[in-house]
Amino acid sequence: MSGDLVVRDSDAGRARWAAVTVQELRDLWLGGRGLVLAFAFTALLSVIAYLSATNESLNFLEQRESVNLALQVAVAVGALVALVVAADAVSGDRERGTIEALLLTPVPRWQILLGKLVAVLSLWFVALVLALPYVWFLGRGVGVVGEAMLAGLLVGTPVALALAALGLSISAFAATNRLSLSVSVLVLLALYAPTQLPLGASQGWLAELLLRINPVTAAEHYSSGIVINGHPWSQDTSWLLAPIAAAVVMTVVALVIAPRAMTLDGGVQR
Q1: Mean of all residue pLDDT scores within the chain
Q2: DSSP structure class, residue 201
Q3: How far is Cα 12 from Cα 211, in angstroms, rounded to an integer?
Q4: Given a cut of 50, is residue 27 above it in pLDDT?
Q5: pLDDT, position 60
Q6: What are the domain boundaries of the chain?
Q7: Pick from 256, 140, 155: which is nearest to 215 by CA?
Q8: Over the chain, what HEC string results?
Q9: What is the pLDDT of residue 198?
């Protein structure tokens, strides 16, 4: 946290994490980092929308598949950005020399992490809003825009929450910012690697089990069924268990276990 967190005695009757959230949002958006990430995200979606609409090699894609592609990119990039920014939340404060002042504020450490987590999640919701015109452009005329955006909100929110909480936890334990970012990116690659497997490799009960327990692939399967295949919302709800469970578990880790690691050097406080 680059700014000074001020918590007055009059604030004792309310949740102090709100003050942390406001300060983190200021640092993220008024500091310019969030705007740069939003611009890069918009540029990426612009390229994908252009290729999906005009490139001859992609003309075989149906409009629903093009919409699903844009939606999956929005979910993937939104969650990636949330993870990376969260991975800098605590370890970055250590390296910038602001962690000591933060720890001296009269705010419980779990509320500090909660405030940081809420601020990081703003990146995901901004990404979803920015994806709306592209989803509309690619899906106009097939009546799938509303369903696609709701599906993105439904599957993307728990995925983004799980990854943001994961990054925050890693950042609390990691002694250096480089270590935090490296571990977070490795975990992200491990989660997204199954999405690149050929179709034949994803057949069979074992492959399906691995896809179901992976929150990223499970979320992708559920949203694809709605956007591409027109499945009813209740048909594949079992695939939502992994994203929701991951969001709950990682949030508990971030707010219950990770606060013990919010020390000057990292590691669990005894």
Answers
A1: 86
A2: G
A3: 45
A4: yes
A5: 42
A6: 13-261
A7: 155
A8: CCCCCCCCHHHHHCCCHHHHHHHHHHHHHHCCHHHHHHHHHHHHHHHHHHHHHHCHHHCCCCHHHHHHHHHHHHHHHHHHHHHHHHHCCCHHHHHHCCHHHHHCCCCCHHHHHHHHHHHHHHHHHHHHHHHHHHHHHHHCCCCCHHHHHHHHHHHHHHHHHHHHHHHHHHHHHCCCHHHHHHHHHHHHHHHHHHHHCCHHHHCCHHHHHHHHHCHHHHHHHHHHHHHCCCCCCCCCHHHHHHHHHHHHHHHHHHHHHHHHHCCCCCCCCC
A9: 61
Cβ(24)–Cβ(46) below 8 Å = no
Helix axes 241-252, 205-213, angle to 10 degrees: 40
Q: For tokens 């270590």, what's the residue?
A: 179
The whole model's pTM is what? 0.88
Length of the chain: 270
Q: Which residue's entry shows tokens 């692939």?
A: 217
- Helices 109-139 and 17-25 sit at what angle, rounded to 10 degrees? 50
User: What local confidence, expressed as pLDDT, does residue 196 receive?
Assistant: 67
DSSP-derived 3-state class of residue 144: coil
What is the Cα–Cα distance from 204 to 217, expressed in whole angstroms?
15
pLDDT higher than threshold 70 for residue 202: no
The structure tokens listed for 2 are 């680059």
User: What pLDDT does residue 2 have?
Assistant: 46
pLDDT, tens digit, 9 for 90 and up, residues 163-176: 999 999 999 999 88
The confidence score (pLDDT) of residue 115 equals 94
